[in-house]
Write a structure and sequence with these properties.
- This protein has 309 residues and is of the alpha+beta class.
- The chain contains 7 helices and 19 strands.
- 27% of the residues lie in helices and 27% in strands.
- Helix 3 packs antiparallel against helix 5.
- The longest helix has 19 residues.
């Protein structure tokens, strides 16, 4: 396993000379993912402005660098050896929310869902309640068409603004993104900076109550504070991946420090904070083989594998 030790990196030196960027090397990604697993990134860059993001994107294309866009670090399993490339962290500096016209809300890509829902409840913006239980940021929700049983991002998305592979700022209508279940087809190399959604003005107490009801349901059905990446597998058509795993007798199954949650079979937990990516990968393979044997169903990963060969 590679360590988090800082090593000479000419690209990091180049990026440090560009405006509106915070650049670090050798940062352990287990600190920045909800599963708390992953080795170091060669370079971690946090853009401070949209202009900085555009400059960075163009520079990385010229340098032909491998790029990983990181928000809250949910929905990722990062290799124990880390990531040999540039991690672009879209954080709170590209966050925030504003009502730009009646019924249209613009949300920064770095905004966590918790912040989005708190502000929606305070202001009485209805339409985003389905996001209660999504662990990531707005940018990640758009990029994966994240959702819950109450709805998905594509239900409310109007358009997305970001930078393309050449560093040009572009706005794309949602209808051009071919959004489907856990799928959004962004142009190659496109990095989301914000998105506009349709909302309705409503009584703040009613919006807050609806959000709290969905949060309460999540806390009943899913491991709320465990180290996980969210749902590991996509639900097969007309089925629940969690139910299939439960019925295959895998609740509580372990591989090293990784285990299947006893609360919800589609959550794999870093139970002691010491699980490795290799532990999780072995458990994933065991689950897939068992579900095929019992149900004849091939489970497809929802979580993205980073640096895993």
């Amino acid at each position: 396993m590679r360590t988090g030790a800082v090593k000479p990196c000419p690209l990091a030196d180049q990026l440090s000379g560009l405006p509106d960027l915070m650049v670090r090397t050798g940062v352990l990604l287990n600190r920045l993912t909800t599963l708390r697993i992953g080795g170091p990134a060669d370079v971690l860059v946090t853009p401070q402005t949209l202009e900085g993001l555009a400059t960075l994107r163009a520079h990385l294309t010229e340098a032909d660098e491998t790029v990983l866009v990181l928000g809250n670090g949910s929905n990722l399993l990062v290799a124990d050896a880390g990531f040999e490339g540039v991690v672009v962290r879209v954080s709170g500096t590209l966050g925030g929310m504003a009502l730009v016209e009646p019924g249209v809300l613009e949300i920064g890509a770095g905004s966590p869902w918790g912040s989005i829902l708190r502000e929606a409840a305070r202001a009485g913006w209805a339409g985003l309640e389905f996001g209660a239980g999504i662990p990531g940021t707005w940018g990640g929700a758009v990029a994966t068409n994240a959702g819950t049983r109450a709805g998905q991002t594509s239900d409310v998305l109007i358009s997305v603004t970001g930078v393309d592979r050449e560093g040009a700022v572009r706005t794309l209508p949602a209808r051009d993104l071919s959004m489907a279940y856990r799928e959004c087809r962004l142009p190659d190399g496109f990095i989301i900076a914000s998105g506009r959604v349709a909302v309705e003005e409503d009584d703040p107490e009613r919006v807050g109550a609806a959000i709290e009801e969905l949060w309460a349901r999540r806390r009943r059905d899913q491991p709320d504070r465990a180290r996980s990446a969210g749902c590991m597998f996509k639900n097969p058509p007309g089925e629940s991946a969690g139910r299939l795993i439960d019925q295959a007798g895998l609740k509580g199954a372990t591989e090293g420090g990784a285990c299947v949650s006893r609360e919800h079979g589609n959550f794999l937990i870093n139970r002691n904070g010491e699980a490795t990516a290799s532990d999780v990968l072995r458990l994933i393979e065991r689950i897939r083989e068992r579900v095929v044997a019992v149900h004849g169903v091939e489970l497809e990963l929802e979580v993205k594998l980073v640096g895993v060969t």
